[in-house]
Backbone:
């Protein structure tokens, strides 16, 4: 079965494929970006149904929490590399920070609200979770160092050293 691309390739590129009826991206590309489609607001995001196995993960709290943690850690590492790249190429610190936060938010698995997996993730991130207490303590120490020194850099550096030491 041949499609538009196959027909175009077999013609040696002599005849440009025509956009399919109702495809706004092809119409915009065909017009060289000058059509009204380039000035219209993008359509509202539509909810894509989640596959059954993705839904099933939400109901296994340990698995949902583990995937949330793993995907968040991976997204943070990738965002850090992207942020360094952005800084090296002249982007402002505020732009790089916002870009990194958006990347982490978009690429961290979040279980559906109200499911056992969502409860497990919320409990894992809670300040009442004893596993989070050392990090909370180092953050308080960092805030105290900032207040004592009047510097905004001394606290995060102290916090980083203490976290690394743990």
Residues:
């Amino acid at each position: 079965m041949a499609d538009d691309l196959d027909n175009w390739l077999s013609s040696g590129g002599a005849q440009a494929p025509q956009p399919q009826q109702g495809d706004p991206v092809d119409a915009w590309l065909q017009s060289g970006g000058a059509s009204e489609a380039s000035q219209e607001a993008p359509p509202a995001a539509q909810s894509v149904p989640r596959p059954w196995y993705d839904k099933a993960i939400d109901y296994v709290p340990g698995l949902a929490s583990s995937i949330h943690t793993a995907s968040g850690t991976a997204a943070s590492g990738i965002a850090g590399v992207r942020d360094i790249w952005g800084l090296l190429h002249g982007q402002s610190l505020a732009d790089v920070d916002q870009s990194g936060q958006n990347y982490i938010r978009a690429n961290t698995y979040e279980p559906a609200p109200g499911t056992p997996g969502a409860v497990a993730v919320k409990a894992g991130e809670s300040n009442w979770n004893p596993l989070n207490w050392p990090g909370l303590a180092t953050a308080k120490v960092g805030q105290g160092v900032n207040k004592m020194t009047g510097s905004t850099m001394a606290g995060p550096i102290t916090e980083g050293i203490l976290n690394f030491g743990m």
